[in-house]
Model the fold of this input.
Amino acid sequence: AQVAGAMLQEQVSIAQDSEVWQTTKKKVNDAGSVMEDAGLKARQSTAWRSAESGALQSYAAVSSVATEGWKQTKASFTSPKLHVTFTQPTLGLQIVKDSEGCPVVQSVDINSEGQQLGVTPGMKICEVYFGGGLLTEEDLTTRPCVKIKSYDQLIKMVKDLDQRPITMGFLSANTSVEEELARAVDILDKLSSQESGAALSELPVHILQSARGVALLRVAKIGLGFSAKIGR
Done:
């Protein structure tokens, strides 16, 4: 076996030293160099750069649309939020604890700053921003913010609430479980409507009757070269 191995190694060495082997090796190396040069020239060409630029622009456009779509979709699942910046010494709000332990506006003083800026009874205080002047869209992500989870948490911050200006985030009182259920019922009514013009959205009654449950999904799909699907 050792002799056979030595003979095989010798034959390989002879083959590698042969003119045919060297010529073939040189052709392979030359072909590789040619392909590498061609690839470099292609990447430096106007057509390549134009295609690359177009792809990047398309990606940026789709990314922007997807981001905006996500913001809109996310907003559709959350209660309308009002940000109010208080500058006067008093807030003009009477705040109580609701059944869930959250701080809720019970009443708003007439002609107070809160009333003028749109705060109404029933709104929940969900966040407090400190420092700076009027709140901007950029401030929503950069300014120090405390998420309010309970009435007791807000009360412990009473000294901090004396700062001016101070911005509070209020959740509208317009959304509730009952209203969400009412929306779901309304959607089902429209899907099962027998009225003319509703054929495209008609849902056969026998399907509803045999269904064990109904899930209402909100999904936004965006596509332009790339695709994005968001929602729940």
Q: What stands out?
A: The two ends are 69 Å apart (CA to CA). Residues 172 and 195 are 35 Å apart (CA to CA).
